[in-house]
């Protein structure tokens, strides 16, 4: 949700511009501040930022994005195995036109992944959701990892300078280049009527199996994750949380918000903690689409925050609302800037934190509170108070 000021919005950010009465109420009655979720020297990825929000120092626990996604997909990783995120992309003309292939349908993506298995390669391929898939290199033979650039960081750019390099990169490049012919052949042999505009694959986010101290051991609680994104569930699995796969959760504007909220409220009958993740504001930021981002923020406030508060009834709960990182429309990728957060106590007491009162939930209001949390992984422990 976090962004930079937009001229067409009168110099406001989308979060400050869009009416968000429910988050504003939480800010007025709760505690607002800003938190740095990406440590200095680390890339501002959803992986590093969400690790912080889950309460883990990325500098200690981060091994790469793909291993977390692989865990959620039930892919076992040995100590020497290397996992890669494999996007289905459109880079026709040598330019990164679309890192999602127009949010390709999962059925179409699975057909492409199946066809890739005909390529002679040490990589094995696993279909995920939409454009998000996984490749695994068993018993990776090199001492250093290849350097791979996230495709969402190079939108509209010529891809040649950003291709994988370093040890093992020849294998990755072979798969990426041959994937174009595989996809073209698939389209010729089997005319596709499913959504998507695929042209090739892009390998990135590599890493080896992570090891997180479980939530049960750290906090003495159990919990669940609710998301359309394998990364979120994967971090949760590594932390000993239970992934809830909600039907209709797409990771985009058409996601079933109501189903996610119902799953969250039901989970609290058996668990202490719910990590409810919504991807649409991030995807809209990557698109550079102001209309989509403002809609995503309004939907989150009306279709997630409001029904969660209403559905809790008399149940005591401490609620944390925040983005994992900014995805500014003008940049179209992630930045390392601190993000605004709100802690709201529903039928219970707030944590003992010093912050000036605010009237709304926005980047500027949160900064004006005077509360700054430098280490994002410390934020969650302020909510989870052992009795």
SSE diagram, text form:
Blueprint lengths: L13 H4 L3 H9 L1 E5 L10 H8 L4 H4 L4 H7 L9 E8 L16 H11 L6 E7 L2 E6 L31 H21 L10 E8 L7 H5 L3 E4 L3 H9 L3 E3 L12 H11 L5 E4 L3 H8 L2 H23 L4 E5 L17 E8 L16 H6 L3 E2 L5 H5 L4
Parallel strand pairs: 1-11, 6-7, 6-8
Antiparallel strand pairs: 1-10, 2-4, 2-5, 3-4, 9-10
Helix pairs in contact: 5-9, 6-7, 10-12, 11-12
Task: Describe this structure as you would to a colleague.
The chain has 387 residues and is of the alpha/beta class. It folds into 2 domains: 7-62 and 213-383, Alkaline Phosphatase, subunit A (3-Layer(aba) Sandwich); 82-207, no CATH class. The protein has helices at residues 14-17, 21-29, 46-53, 58-61, 66-72, 106-116, 169-189, 215-219, 230-238, 257-267, 280-287, 290-312, 363-368, 379-383, and strands at residues 31-35, 82-89, 123-129, 132-137, 200-207, 223-226, 242-244, 273-276, 317-321, 339-346, 372-373. The strands form 3 sheets. The chain has a 4-stranded mixed sheet with strand order 9-10-1-11. Strands 3-4-2-5 form a 4-stranded antiparallel sheet, with helices on both faces. The longest helix is centred in the C-terminal third of the chain and has 23 residues, at 290-312. The mean pLDDT is 95.
Note the main attributes of this structure.
single chain, 387 residues, alpha/beta, Alkaline Phosphatase, subunit A, 2 domains, 4-stranded mixed β-sheet, 4-stranded antiparallel β-sheet, 14 helices, 16% strand
């Amino acid at each position: 949700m976090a962004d930079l000021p937009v001229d067409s919005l009168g110099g406001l950010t989308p979060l400050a511009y869009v009416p968000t009465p429910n988050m504003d109420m939480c800010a007025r009655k709760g505690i607002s501040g800003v938190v740095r979720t990406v440590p200095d020297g680390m890339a501002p990825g959803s992986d590093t930022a969400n690790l912080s929000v889950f309460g883990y120092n990325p500098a200690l626990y981060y091994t790469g994005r793909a291993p977390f996604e692989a865990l959620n997909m039930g892919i076992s990783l040995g100590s020497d195995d290397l996992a890669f995120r494999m996007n289905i992309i459109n880079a026709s003309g040598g330019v990164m036109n679309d890192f999602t292939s127009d949010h390709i349908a999962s059925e179409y993506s699975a057909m492409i992944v199946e066809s890739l298995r005909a390529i002679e390669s040490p990589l094995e391929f696993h279909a995920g959701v939409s454009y998000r898939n996984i490749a695994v290199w068993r018993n990776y033979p090199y001492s250093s990892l290849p350097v791979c650039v996230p495709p969402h960081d190079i939108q509209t750019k010529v891809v040649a300078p950003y291709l994988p390099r370093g040890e093992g990169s020849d294998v990755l490049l072979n798969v990426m280049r041959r994937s174009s012919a595989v996809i073209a052949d698939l389209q010729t042999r089997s005319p596709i009527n499913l959504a998507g505009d695929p042209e090739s694959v892009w390998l990135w986010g590599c890493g080896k199996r992570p090891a997180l101290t479980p939530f049960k051991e750290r906090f003495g609680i159990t919990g669940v994750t609710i998301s359309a994104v394998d990364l979120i569930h994967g971090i949760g699995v590594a932390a000993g949380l239970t992934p809830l796969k909600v039907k209709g959760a797409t990771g985009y504007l058409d996601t079933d918000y109501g189903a996610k909220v119902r799953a969250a409220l039901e989970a609290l009958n058996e668990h202490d903690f719910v990590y409810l993740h919504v991807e649409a504001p991030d995807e809209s930021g990557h698109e550079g689409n102001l209309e989509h981002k403002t809609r995503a923020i309004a939907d989150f406030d009306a279709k997630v925050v409001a029904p969660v508060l209403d559905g809790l009834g008399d149940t005591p709960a401490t609620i944390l609302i925040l983005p994992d990182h900014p995805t500014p429309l003008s940049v179209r990728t992630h930045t390392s800037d601190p993000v605004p957060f709100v802690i709201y106590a529903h039928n219970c007491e707030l944590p003992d934190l010093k912050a000036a009162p605010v009237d709304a939930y926005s980047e500027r209001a949160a900064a004006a509170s005077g509360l700054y949390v430098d280490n994002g992984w410390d934020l969650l422990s302020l909510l989870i108070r052992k009795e």
